[in-house]
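Q&A FORM
Asked by: J.P.
Topic: structure of 5-methylcytosine-specific restriction enzyme A

PROVIDED:
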Amino acid sequence: MSIDEAITSFLNGNRPSSFRKSQYWFVLGPNGELLPAKAIWSLATGITGAKFNTTHAVSGLSDAGYSVVDIRHIQTSEKFDDAVEKSLATSSQDRKKRLANASKNPVKKITMVEQFVRNPDVVAEVLYQANGKCQECGAKAPFNRKSDGKPYLEVHHKKTLASGGEDTVENAIAVCPNCHRKAHYG
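REPLIED BY: S.T.
REPLY: Here is the structure written out as tokens.
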């Protein structure tokens, strides 16, 4: 079967014989989901997992144009924030020594982000009701958007979507960037 058919089959609950949960290597599914690379390769080729290794699956999927991810190399923003805190805990002199030896060009990486698909009508209505004023501090929007000249405000969910909050007008307010940062980090 083709790789696309193997992905569909896996998403429909089919598993190859001797299926074991993947630890590190995943192929990106059609909706951004992470699917076990070795299982997908096994379904696509009909070869049981014991007769090939993960390197074969990764190479085969990559060669066929599929995005394959090693989750050991995913860095979350929390890890970066921790690294900044660790750097701040050292002396400026130590930081300057590290900076003198550091590459001036950052390494690029591919990241995957899980996002909520928000309702554009909620955002539009909340911005309309705010009428260009922050609904937290009451100040006028700090600037106008280049794209359309409308006041720049950000829509913030009172109870975050990640915490089970609803994407509704009642659960959202329009805030200036400072109040939005304060709501999340203050």
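FOLLOW-UP: The chain has a mean pLDDT of 89.
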